[in-house]
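Regression test case RT-17, inverse folding.

Input:
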């Protein structure tokens, strides 16, 4: 399974999912271009570029075909990978993702792009962006999220703005009907960035796409702890990814986190 994270998120944010799925699948989770331990070259980036990066990760890991799971911007890159290289994708799971930006989401991202140089200097400005009001009322969850964020490498302004550019430019609406890869679409009803209507649109456009039962929670849950929504999603993904890559040794059962894109 290839795990592609979203905007501003390193591969380590998949910790709960990797711990679960590495018991039955080979898991590869790269830091995307511009975040974590990967380089942050000058932008703008594109989702096709991010998809090509993901393909190079598969090649470096000597994987011919993979179940691809993409969250948010990672889901947009996963769309591009499946459209360009369908023979390399066993199945596709699009979580809290989008085929194009809704007007409110576009306005938010453009504002974030402009504000990030200032937000980079002030943790309270960085930390308030994606959580719902209900999430902010869960003090333990907020503490865990902030603790996780503080433990990760800081994303440079150049990397963040490059990723924002990729999200703003992504538009696969006209191409999704040609997608011929088994696809699961999942979304949180309270997602603060990508509206659920966008997920419904993707599920209608992709032939045979499977939308699971909706969740009241956002898809961007508490790092290090499985929420009820995440457990439901894990069951859906486990049933969907029907061809696990199994290993034979204890050492290789551990999730492989690729923290730097191959050169």
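Golden output:
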């Amino acid at each position: 399974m290839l795990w592609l994270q979203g905007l501003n998120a390193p591969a380590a944010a998949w910790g709960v999912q990797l711990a679960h799925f590495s018991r039955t699948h080979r898991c590869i989770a790269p830091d995307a271009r511009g975040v974590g331990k990967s380089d942050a070259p000058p932008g703008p980036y594109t989702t096709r570029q991010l998809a090509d990066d993901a393909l190079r990760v598969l090649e470096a890991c000597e994987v011919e075909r993979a179940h691809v799971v993409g969250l948010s911007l990672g889901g947009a890159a996963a769309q591009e990978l499946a459209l360009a290289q369908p023979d390399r994708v066993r199945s596709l799971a699009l979580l809290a993702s989008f085929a194009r930006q809704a007007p409110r989401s576009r306005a938010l991202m453009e504002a974030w792009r402009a504000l990030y140089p200032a937000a980079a200097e002030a943790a309270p400005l960085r930390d308030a962006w994606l959580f719902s009001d209900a999430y902010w009322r869960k003090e333990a969850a907020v503490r865990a999220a902030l603790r996780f964020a503080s433990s990760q490498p800081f994303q440079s302004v150049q990397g963040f703005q490059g990723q924002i550019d990729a999200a703003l430019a992504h538009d696969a609406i006209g191409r999704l009907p040609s997608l011929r890869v088994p696809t699961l679409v999942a979304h949180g009803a309270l997602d603060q960035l990508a509206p659920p209507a966008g997920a419904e649109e993707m599920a209608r456009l992709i032939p045979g796409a499977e939308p699971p039962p909706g969740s009241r929670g956002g898809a961007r849950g508490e790092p290090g702890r499985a929420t009820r929504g995440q457990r439901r999603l894990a069951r859906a993904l486990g049933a969907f990814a029907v061809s696990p890559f199994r290993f034979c040794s204890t050492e290789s059962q551990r999730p492989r986190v690729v923290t730097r894109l191959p050169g």
